[in-house]
Amino acid sequence: MQSKNKIFIGALAVVVAALFWSLDAIFLRPHLASVPATLVVFLEHGMGFIILIPFLFIYGSELKKITKKQWLTIFWVALFGGALGTTFFTKALFLTGFVDVSVVVLLQKFQPIFAILLSAIILRERFHPKFYAYATLALIGGYFVTFKDPTSINFGSATIMMVVFSLLAAFSWGSSTTFGKYSLKNINFGLLATLRFGFTVLIMLFPAMTYFSTLPSVETNVWITLAIIVFTSGAVAMYLYYYGLKKIPASLATLCELAWPFSAVIFDYIFNHNILSTTQIMGACILLVAVTLATRLNKTQTISGIVLTGSNNGEKVGARTANLDINLAKNLAKGLYACKVELEGIFYRGLMYYGINSLTNKDCLEVHILGFNGDIYGKSITISTERYLRFPKKFKNVQELSEQIKKDLSQSFSE
Fold first, then answer.
1. Computed over its alpha carbons, how large is the radius of gyration of the chain?
2. Which domains does the chain have, with CATH numbers?
3. Which residues pair with 322 in a beta bridge?
4. Nearest one of 191, 241, 164, 155 to 62, comparing CA atoms
5. What is the pLDDT of residues 187-246, one digit of tens each?
6. 102 pLDDT more than 70
7. What pLDDT, on a 0 to 100 scale, did the predictor assign at position 11?
8. Is the pTM of this model over 0.85?
9. How far is CA 406 from CA 236, 411, 413, in A?
10. Dist CA 227 CA 44 (whole Å)
11. For residue 414, which of 406, 382, 184, 317 has the smallest C-alpha distance?
């Protein structure tokens, strides 16, 4: 029950953050159109950082826990999620004149696509076989979302630049989600939000300095809007988002973020009377379904079963494996997965393989448990997938298989 409550609270926090972001795009950011986008980003993050500073004192001792790799990921989150992502999104909204707000928001749902692509490039993960189809479907949906009448398209510079900035924002925020989850491994979510805002202020300082001379002429309503943003869609929303992300898988967080486009479209219709065309609505449905399906490909899947007696082929290639009934894998895509293995209440890291066995020429389901060499025949184990690593491979001999296993182990457990 406690675990379910934790997931519910985490999901609710992400949904509330997403609703704040909808209010930002529809009600708040239009009041900032008179201020350059780079200055807007600097001011809202500067004010947000001031609000979050107490977390530096409360959780300052955790700074020692942050590894060099984590510092790099936190900087990435600040650069792309804070500085570039917010700037691109603001520029996209400014270019539409806040008429096609729903289009800009809907195009942000390409974030998971970019996150998965980035994981493949940076983390050496591999695409799930169905990912290509879903990504293509998402692109088709995005195309129809962008243009009210796809049979009579005006490729005006403003429209093209709006799409470019929207997709750049989606890439920036998608990569920020990927690295944000990694950054949360051993630090408080409030501390991460503070570091993100602090680094963003430093990053935006130089480009914003060009406009510092205009600060005295900034109208009072702009300062009020910035203050509201800090306590809603800015610092507070980011705090809630990282709070939720700490408690739930990134794949579930991405689904909860769907509250953003849905609520933004509704708010835009009710309050601004901006209506999507029939083709845009159809495109939005295609886009959201495709992205949801693509996201679910990376969801954690759990398998429980009894370890079967094998032929001891694992010892021949230098990695003992526990064999399971292949029928347990009926919902899995074939390939190699990084996973967690629970055995008698103790958790281990492991590699699970489902596919053709080069030594027997038959499909198999087996798991290598890292750092475990005991006898577990006949015992029950539970496997939870973490990442899809690569497609199944057929090897000509034992030596090729052994080299691949060493490579898999090295890449998967290098952290």
1. 24
2. 2-296 (no CATH), 302-412 (2.40.30.30)
3. 367
4. 191
5. 788 888 899 999 999 999 999 999 999 999 999 999 999 999 999 988 898 889 888 877
6. yes
7. 84
8. no
9. 45, 9, 11
10. 8
11. 406
Distances (CA, A) of 156 to 151, 162, 174: 15, 10, 27
Contact indicator for 181, 250 with CB cutoff of 8 Å:
yes
pLDDT tens, position by position, 118-154: 766 665 556 667 778 888 888 888 877 877 766 655 5
> Tokens representing 38?
């780079």
CB distance 415 to 349 below 8 Å: no
How far apart (Å, rounded) are the C-alpha atoms in residues 365 and 373? 18
% of the chain beyond a pLDDT of 90: 15
- Inter-CA distances, 218 with 192, 208, 211, Å: 30, 14, 11
DSSP 112-164: HHHHHHHHHHHS-----TTHHHHHHHHHHHHHHHH-S-TTS----HHHHHHHH
Q: In what order do the strands lie in the sheet with 380-390?
A: 302-306, 380-390, 335-343, 346-357, 362-369, 322-323
| CA dist., res. 268 & res. 204, Å (int) | 30
The answer to whether the beta carbons of residues 364 and 355 sit under 8 Å apart is yes
8 Å CB contact between 337 and 387: yes
What does the DSSP assignment read for 266-303?
HHHHHHH-----HHHHHHHHHHHHHHHHHHHTTS--EE
What length is written for the chain? 415
CA atoms 32, 38, 44, 47: torsion sign: negative
pLDDT by residue (tens digit) across 236-274?
A: 988 898 888 777 766 667 677 777 777 888 888 787 787
Q: What is the pLDDT of residues 350-378, one digit of tens each?
A: 888 888 877 777 888 888 888 777 778 88
CB of 405 closer than 8 Å to CB of 352 = no
* Cα angle, residue 154 at apex, residues 117 and 291 outer, rounded to 5°: 25
Of all residues in the chain, what percent carry a pLDDT higher than 70? 84
Per-residue model confidence as pLDDT tens digits over 301-350: 788 899 887 665 555 555 677 888 988 887 777 888 888 888 888 888 88
Query: Quick check: 15 and 256 in contact, CB under 8 A?
Result: yes
Pair 108, 169: CB distance under 8 Å: yes
